[in-house]
Each structure stands twice: as structure tokens, then as C-alpha cells.
Design brief:
alpha/beta; about 20% strand; about 100 residues; globular
């Protein structure tokens, strides 16, 4: 999923590279350039500035001092859950024995 597609899914805007490809959701501390992470709370905001995540889902008041690629939402945790469901859809068992 591209960042611009994520923003469309969450019905919001993005900042930064809208063409960046996101492959998975990851914890903020271990996220890499193709990962999506969320920022919720002051401690996480401090960690966000040193995170390698390709895109951050943040609250509306997050200060983007590092010009990161991000998506602003009202509830980052809920938006992350919704995004992860798109990135990692549940596989339904095949009918049969």
C-alpha cells in the first residue's frame, strides 16, 4: 500500500512522500523504511524522531520537525489497527475437511 492510498483509506491527508510503499505495520522502535508505525503519547513522540519507519500515523498536533512522511488522524491507535487490517488481511480457511 502506498502512503497516498493509506491516507485515502483513513480519509485524511498525508505529508511527505505519497508514493512510498508500505509493506507491514511494525512497532515504532523496530520499524524500517517500508514499515508503518503509529505515535500515541509523549514518550512515543520523542521516539518518533529517531524511528526509521517509512510512515508514521500521528495525532493532529504532532510537530513534524524532521519533515517525515506521515498521516495525521484523530486516533492514531485506531487508524493503525485499520491500516494493519489492510496490510495483513486475515486469510479465511478454505472450505473442506
Amino acid at each position: 500500500m502506498r502512503v497516498r492510498e493509506l491516507a485515502e483509506l483513513l480519509e485524511t491527508d498525508f505529508e511527505g512522500d505519497g508514493e512510498r510503499e508500505l509493506l507491514r505495520g511494525s512497532p515504532l522502535e523496530s520499524a524500517g523504511p517500508e514499515d508503518l508505525a503509529f505515535v500515541s503519547g509523549q514518550a512515543a513522540e520523542q521516539k518518533a524522531h529517531s524511528s526509521s519507519a517509512g510512515c508514521l500515523i500521528v495525532g493532529r498536533k504532532f510537530l513534524n520537525r524532521d519533515q517525515r512522511t506521515l498521516v495525521r488522524v484523530k486516533d492514531p491507535r485506531a487508524a493503525f489497527a485499520r491500516a494493519v487490517n489492510q496490510l495483513h488481511p486475515r486469510q479465511r480457511p478454505r472450505p473442506g475437511i
